[in-house]
Amino acid sequence: MKIYTKTGDSGDTGLFGGGRVLKNHPRVEAYGDVDELNAVLGFVRAAEQMPRIDEVLVPIQRDLFAIGALLATPDRDKMRQHLEKANIDDARITALERAIDDGDAELEPLRSFIVPGGSPKAAALHVARTVCRRAERRVVELGLETELPPLVVIYLNRLSDLLFTLARVANKRSGAGEVTW
DSSP letters along 133-167, please? Predict the structure, then answer.
């Protein structure tokens, strides 16, 4: 199979399960931002080795593949299948919350806004956090025109909180410290 198909040369793209939409359709914007987030998390893992942080990110990247597939699928039954395949459920949300709590346990309480930056790992995590927030906004926008499982927005919301916490942890572990606003 060739990587190029030429089917999108006129500005439209195929969806999982059939159908075509313009490449700037809210559905494509939503799953495109989730794909970008997944790529940024790959960059985060490559930026600076921090095994305990990286171990948290790998299953999240797998989740994001499933969320992207779900968003690329207009068929509700297939959406449900993608969620089940990825095991994205209340337990996954709880796992994100547990990872946030574990990170918070290493940190001083937050008393002011944190200026993004610090170590390469933390800076990359801050970029990932902002991409995650954009993906969340795009999914909310898509949800205005089509029914989506509520867990998708909840997952992205928790994930952005986790990425912020991991950025703080990365700075602490690397000795970079934090710059406050």
Answer: HHHHHHHHHHHTTS---HHHHHHHHHHHHHHHHHH
